[in-house]
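User: Here's a chain of 872 residues. Predict its fold as tokens.
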Amino acid sequence: MSSPNHRDENQKNLEQEIATHLEMSARDHEDRGASSQQAAQAARREFGNAALVEHVTRDQWRGRWLEDLTQDLRHGARLLRRSPGFTIIAVLTLALGIGANTAIFSLVNSILLRPLPYAHAEQLVSINGNYPKGALVALRERSKTMDLAAYAEGYEFNLTGLGDPIRLSGTPVSAELFSILGAKAAIGRTFQPGDDAAGKNSFVILSNSLWQRQFKSDLNILGHLITLDGMQREIVGVMPADFRFPSPQTEVWTPIDIDPRNAHAFWGGDFMPTIARLRPGATLQQADTEIRFLQPQIATMFPWPMPKDWNPELSAVSLQTGMLGDVRSRLLILLAAVVLVLLIACANVANLTLSRGSVREKEIAIRASMGAARHRIMRQLITESVLMASFGGALGLLLASVGLTLLKSTLPADTPGLGDVAIDWRVLVFTAALVIFTGIVSGIAPAFQSSRAELTESLKAGGRGSTLSKGRRVRSILVIGELALAVLLVSAAGLLIHSLWALSHVNPGFHSDNVLTARITPNENFCGDQGRCFSFYRDLLREARALPGVEEASLINTLPLGGRLQKRSSDVEGYVPTTEKPAPLFWLNTISPGYFNSMRIPIASGREFTEADTTGNPRSVIISAETARRFFPNQDAVGKHMRLIGQEDWCTIVGVANDVRAYDLRRNLPTWMDGMIYVPYGPGATREDGSVPAQMTLVLRSASAVPQLEKSIRELTASLNPEAPVSDLKAMPDILSGETAAPRSIASLFAAFAALALVLGVIGIYGVISFFVGQRTREIGIRIAMGAQRRDILKLVVNEGLTLTLIGIGAGLAAAFALTSFLTSFLYGVSATDPLDFAAVAALFATVALVASYIPARRAMRVDPLTALRYE
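Assistant: Prediction complete.
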């Protein structure tokens, strides 16, 4: 489209031309004796409607513009067809950059940009803090800006009475959650106010997938009773297929049990994530200020002192931000990486176009000499570039569809919204804009260079020196720029790969080889009878140890890296309570004797549990080495005492176990916990409410084939308790591997993008040096004729490539030092400015640049002086 300035100039010229015509016609009438007024009227009458003339002329301009564009497109298509090698390379280069950006943007669009599927989602809020039921009730009563609801994460239920027991993933929620989300049931209803009151909460809502799979899409399902964890619940609704809160794995929703009479459960039970909907007129900033103001008030309402650092990162954010967590930063980092790849691709194509443009200089100079304006020549060249980018975009869409499938398999399966990622109309609009942007960016430098005013000099003999020098300068700047971007990208990839290597070689504190784990989950009411529960697990261990191939068997309630933890505050001998920390909070592991041996966790001092310890008389406890160092520095912790909150008797520390990476591979414990303790499974392992853990994980060390062992475990468990399903049968090495899934996906994608950037950078160096050799063939021939040795020619050419490379490396490393700090949260065991990594990247680029320069240098060394002296 013509620029506004150009249109204004045309309009002025048209108006001036009409005025001149009218003036000349009026003068002619005056010469024939008419008065000035009569002459002017006659001239206007003869000319006709001036406004209509202007309108018709402007229509002709528009038609001319469209005709020019069509002509440019046809001319560009002919030129691309005449140079198939150039076209294929350029289109493939752009297709890789556009395809990678389209694939990553598809993720960003579906996960970050697409609104949540709830009514007025912009009003939904996530509270970055966890609250028990009592705190939730108190917040509801006091908040003036929000209506609040909560949900409990990580719950599972046994569905029994319908054949084999099934383990379901479920979410207990407050009754208001569905109304706050604005979610309605596809069949039946959602929970109503009061459905979460004690004794009135025996309801359940089914997910659409469970309804179809387990209940055969029965439309008469409402009102039916099902048994979850031994409790009968009435089905009151089925949710739509697209309702997946808080995760796609949720299969049932049940009301939480709000009972103020049970102080322990009311204030010390689940500390739940909280969401809210802003009330009319309220803003997110007001909600954030209010929740921070209310926090100290809520803390004073607990029946026991609360630490001052409870919910230390408390804030109110949008629900979408709260649910995404660190997924947002991971995707934005990947998007930044592919943008760098695209810029490198644009620089590469610009260099190719500049090299190709050198052979079109006379064509363009002739057009300029024949009156073509510079803006007209530039428009044609940029149109050709956009046309080429369009072909790259079409191919890029095909590559993106393939790449999207690979991305889904590479990223962790629990990435929010991953299953909904697809190429939709927003992605197509993005790709179309990207094509235009890419075409302009890759074509603007060649267009400026090829349309410069002094091009007419190229028609004269000997007029090439200045133009070649300027062209080489532009090409050199472009290749330095793409090398700098490639160095930045490869540096980031190197840091992530180094971090992944360090994380993969972390000593988890146990030996995972030949270890199989299985979660055993009898109903809670089954373990309401402690003796029956202890007897079940005792028989299970005895029979499991007798299975063929099983060397050792043991139990634990929270498997290391298993994603579950049990917390318990405790008194510690010698610890002086403070206002900030009235009682230390520990990760509580309930284990059977033999667990440390099964997992090959060394006992640093003292001893492991024996069967005598399971009686709970006297009470015994084992602590981790980190816990011993924190609470008993420079002392022997064995023989010291601790007391779990809720118990009267003190426990004797009988052993100190080596530290285990229980929370994740980066750390042993979450930052808000003070230590780790182990208690023997038995009467001494009761929880604060007096119950015993019903769900335990069976740990088997065996050399047998895992599939056969899985079958044996299921049959054995069913024989002892038909209503106790077996779930999460996993080999411990697979659990370890899963811990590196997220960093591995980021590192592998960065490595792929970095490899592409490196290849494009090498191609850029090779292209510039090849052009350098081609344009200086005559000079090289003269040098050889005058006695220059082959090594001199080699040095001349290689120095040219290394000079550009070293400048690019320097600029890239400077950018890396400044920008890789954004990767700090993704790194483990390596600094974001690690000098060894940066030195390795510099050496890599210097080496590949040397190789890329050597190939055209060999061609230069073989130049025949006689041929070169005739070269033009």
